[in-house]
Design brief:
Helices cover 43% and strands 0% of the residues. The chain has 184 residues and is mainly alpha-helical.
Length: 184
């Protein structure tokens, strides 16, 4: 046990890179590393000896508790769970919810903006042709997807209108026409 009543005063400082001496220097002997310095350092003033306390300080008690039981970690989420979490995070955004409500609400002369876009694509299908209607729907989806990447409300509104309105260009017979080449 060390004596805690006396302060610790450093007696020597060995510079970095100097080899350690084989033995400590005698009280009146110069340390060998002092010869490496250009000018000797001035002697440091000694601190006055503290007054002897009347009562010794109480011993310091330290209690350390170590818990060695392993922590139960939850299993990592499955790929399906990660996909569901990703979709849920994207679908519960207030911008998306309000954009879907605004795109599907019938506030545009009794029809919704998505319904008006679907009717426009259906008219393009009957008048301009199948390929023109699909190209128009794909271009609208691509442009609104690029605008939606910023995450603003107007971009999400436009994307929902283009996505839901793209249903107006679809027809189940298109699969038969694509596979066989036989039109109606």
């Amino acid at each position: 046990m060390t004596d805690t009543s006396r302060p610790i005063t450093p007696t020597r400082v060995i510079p970095a890179g100097a080899p350690l001496p084989p033995r400590p220097p005698d009280p009146d002997e110069e340390p060998p590393w002092w010869h490496q310095r250009k000018t000797p350092a001035p002697p440091s003033p000694r601190a006055p000896a503290p007054a002897a306390p009347s009562d010794p300080p109480p011993p310091i008690q330290v209690h350390v508790t170590v818990d060695l039981t392993p922590v139960e970690e939850p299993p990592p989420p499955t790929r399906t769970q990660r996909a569901v979490d990703w979709v849920w995070d994207r679908c519960t955004d207030w911008r998306l919810i309000s954009a879907v409500l605004a795109a599907l609400a019938p506030w545009l002369a009794g029809t919704s903006p998505a319904g008006a876009w679907a009717a426009t694509l259906h008219d393009a299908r009957t008048e301009a042709g199948l390929l023109a209607a699909y190209l128009l729907a794909a271009a609208a989806l691509g442009i609104t997807w690029a605008i939606n990447r910023r995450g603003r409300w107007a971009g999400r509104f436009a994307y929902v209108v283009a996505f839901v309105g793209a249903i107006g260009v679809l027809d189940l017979y298109d699969i038969v026409y694509l596979l066989t080449g036989v039109p109606r």
